[in-house]
Model the fold of this input.
Amino acid sequence: MSAPLLEVEDLSVRFETDDGTVHAVDRLSFSLGEREVLGVVGESGCGKSVSFMSLLRLLPETAVVSGRARFGDVDLLTASTARLRRIRGREIAFVFQEPMTSLNPAFTVGNQIGEVLRRHLGMSRRDAQARAVELLDLVRIPAPARRVKEYPHQLSGGMRQRVMIAMALACDPKILIADEPTTALDVTIQAGILDLMRDIRERLGTAIVLITHTLGVVADIADRVIVMYAGRKAEEAPVFDLYAQPQHPYTIGLLGAVPRPGASRRLQEIPGRVPSLAELPTACAFAPRCPRADDLSRSAVPELREVRPGHRVACFHPGPTP
Amino acid sequence: MGGFLLRKAGAALVVVFLSSVLVFVGVRALPGDPAIALAGENHDPAVLAAVRQEYGLDKPLPVQYVKWVWRALHGNLGLDDRQLPVAHTIVSRIPISLELALLSVLVGMVIGITAGVIAAVRRGKPSDHAATTLALVGLSVPHFWLGLLAIIVFAVDLHWLPSGGYVSFGSDPIGNLEHMVMPALVLGTGLSAVLMRQMRSSMLTSLGADYVRTARAKGLSERSVVGKHAFRNSLITVTTVVGLQLGQLISGVVITEVIFVIPGFGRLTIDAITARDYTLIQGVVLVTATGYVVVNLLVDVVYSLLNPRIRVS
Amino acid sequence: MSFVEVAPIVTPRARRRKILRRRFLRRPLAVVGLLVALGFIVAAAFAPWVAPYSASATDFNNILSHASGKHLLGTDELGRDVLSRIIWGARASIEAGVLSTLLAMVVAVPVGLIAGYFRGWPDTVIARLTDVLLAFPFLILAVGLSAIFGSSLTSATFALGIASAPALIRIARGEALALREEDYVRAAVANGAGDLRIIARHVLPNMTSTLIVQATVLIPTAIIGEAVLSFLGLGVQPPTPSWGVMLSDAQSYLTQAPRLAIYPGLAIFFCSLSFNLLGDGLRDILDPRTTR
Done:
């Protein structure tokens, strides 16, 4: 495989709040290759969104970020703001979770898409508007020439999300980071958005990071999956391996919690709650909820180990269901 | 947008109508013989008889009201205590007050909005604290006192500006502005204080909004993020506030005209009330209420133009 | 299946008050505002004991004098001690400011509540009437009402109270309107609670913070309003002192003794500023949503 597009090492993010420090992400490392679709899965609060927002410096001022994030010849975490602005929207694009509020209600859809084109590619207003129509067509919005002049409040949630995607793809970025792109939409619309993403990967060759808390979403479209828990990577594997042979008890728990239509088996919940991130743990973060926990897990932090080719787990007792 | 404005216009008409009724009934409800009041406290029976004839005071109230409204619509608001036509006096005074009001709004908006944006963008820093404190001071300061202070400093001490009076723009533009500078600044200060606070609060909300995060993620310059995305949305909120401040502005105009001895509509109102000149009061109050309602309607128009959710529904 | 009575949002009062008190004390400006406002109130209440002279004690041998040991702020055109007159003047301002606001609340809250909660034709009538009254700028209304009631402190207080009421009605109505849609109100209705009970237990208590903040905004407006009315000769009549009257008198002496215009104005300024600071502080601690 050619050199990875994005290489992140020891990414840590903590927030200094009035009520103390919150360690949102702890020494996360991963890489993303060209044309690859990486799924990032975890519960709310596990640090998945924060990790990627930190790469583009989109976090509030209370965030303290450390580590390295190599993208091309630039370290995203230490690059100048000016350099970063040239990368945002142009080479790395972000699609946010809330289509309802992520678009500015005061400007037309065409204006907001055109902005990126005018800013990064120097297009004229007219050219940008024309390209915006093409982009709306690309994301399969019907009657794009009409829609381009409309305001966000005139579009449905699904369409707004497509507009967000169109905006992100406008400058043909190398990486598209989609943060829970389907969470705020209902199931029938979700399928359409996922189809679109598959299409994008095929046609444009964009590498995609798909962040979600729903396992089912990832199965269809990802090449590789990272499972995060409490700010750390719990498991990482090619998608088939993860689903066929999950190693980390958390992953197994997540898979067990997926409702299967027709199954008469009771849904398995994972007992307990996500730990508070106020202190850096000195033990395995999952131990309180883990059926395999023992003194070792409660006294030391498990490091990532490769248990099969391309399949890494951070666990003292990895393996299929006990 | 048409529906929105139509509803607002309808409500405005209702308010004007009710105000006119209120004024009309108010004057006639005062203790004593309305004829005496309308005749300017003149007790001469011949005059009283003429007044009764004129206003149809022996006829039922609704008839009187219709008569009055009919006349008013034709520009006849009666004669005041000095036998001068009320409508004429009012019309000659309004442009003066209008000039003062417009200049003050200009001052208020320019200072208030700019200060508010700066304070929001530099939140927590010294410039923010300074601006916020100044705004608080501006809110608490009684304007007429500020006017007196301004007169003391600029007119009495430094002799830079006249202490009062008025010169029309047509006859002497420089003189006109010289006379208007202090009153407009004094009045504008109050408005700017309110606007600054509102703009700051509004901008802070906008800057924290998701769409601003999206704008940053698109790689837009900070100037674009703040000046285009956040500002536009804040402007919409602030327009409503400007509308709400119009009442304060009118009160301010009245006092400012009294202090700076400007022969405007505001001064006319006070003089009418203190002199108990009821015909004049009726006319003045009617015009005030109508004017206020009309201006509010204009603010609604501006708001609907700015807010796409109303403009395109 | 049994229904559960939904408790109103107000948590145990004592605990909440303690939290609020602590938050308040962390804001120095608000505390300063409170202390200064209290200072004015105390000065007004205890004027006979605090002021060195009576408000009308003239001394024609000593007119327009500068600050001295005997007269800390000097004397006015009739030889009266300026400091004493300012202290006595606080009475008019505080009385007008506080009482008129109280009057406005007593009138506006029930009216607004009825309009917002019950809706229907009472709401339409009240809303229209309020709109009409709001079409008259506050001062015009106050001046007009003063003219009708005659000129005195009491009539000025009344006029200011009535002029402040429409805006408050609108606010109270808005609050009631919003609160009646809250889930806990609907739950109470579903449980068969009567209107009076719902209003008393669920709606009114949740309006109090907004109303308190509004009161602290109305008071300075009323204080300035009283000053304006007295300035125009429509409020307090001489010889009763009032800051507005002092300012009006000072106009004739702007060249000889500009300080006569400065002192009363400063008093009005600080008095209204203190209530504004207090109001800001209260708004901050009572409404967690305001962005600072």
Observations:
- Chain C has a mean pLDDT of 81.
- The radius of gyration of chain C is 23 Å.
- The CA atoms of residues 95 and 157 of chain C lie 8 Å apart.
- Chains C and A do not touch (no CB pair under 8 Å).
